[in-house]
Amino acid sequence: MKPYHRPTILQDVVELAPVLRPEDVREVALHGHTPEQALCIGYLSGSLTRSVINNYGQVVGMYGVVRISDISGRIWMLGSKGLLKISRPFLKESRSEVENMHKLFPNLTNFIDSRNAVHVRWVRWLGFKFLGETVINNVKLYEFSRLSDGGI
Questions:
Q1: What's 20's DSSP letter?
Q2: Helix or strand run (H / E) with residue 52
Q3: Which of 41, 97, 101, 134 has its CA 20 to 30 A from that of 49?
Q4: How many domains does the chain have?
């Protein structure tokens, strides 16, 4: 079986939460959440939520977009170390998945923990622009955004 992306089901939250990368656990804790809470928030409030499945049928990542306004959505991603093992297939589908999110919201935005190098690289690779920095609990966060080709 080849890795693929599909709509998230609740069981994906249960499977992924205990195996999140330590960097992802640290980032969600910065916002006052456990892995389970963060994944549930994304799943339940997301306008679009997708899961990444590896060659063995295991959930190795979840991502999505949560509505902020009619034109803006908060993009997010959390994953296990297994996501790094299928990085090429994941990256290959990421661009089209972001384009699907842009069909819902012309502006995609969020903040990212500056220490989470994997996510920072992913966001840059997808063409997001870094707008500024803020600090929460002595941790630097980068604000990033991307406008659809059609603009707003």
A1: B
A2: strand 46-53
A3: 134
A4: 1
CA–CA separation, 43 and 51 (whole Å): 10
pLDDT in tens, 70-91: 999 999 999 999 998 998 888 8
Rounded distance between C-alpha atoms, residue 110 and residue 102, angstroms: 14
> Can you tell me which residue has the tokens 């991502």?
63
Q: Both tokens of residue 66?
A: 């949560």
Q: In whole angstroms, give the CA distance from residue 97 to residue 50.
A: 9
Q: Which residue has the tokens 């994906």?
A: 12
Q: Please identify which residue in the block is written with the tokens 């994953």.
A: 79
pLDDT given for residue 149 in this prediction = 76
136 found inside a domain: no
With b for 16 or more beta-carbon neighbours within 10 A and e for fewer, the 41-50 pattern comes to bbbeebebbb
Contact 52, 79 (CB under 8 A): yes
pTM, full prediction: 0.90
Which domain covers residue 43, as residue numbers? Answer: 4-106
In a domain? residue 124: no
Contact 26, 32 (CB under 8 A): no
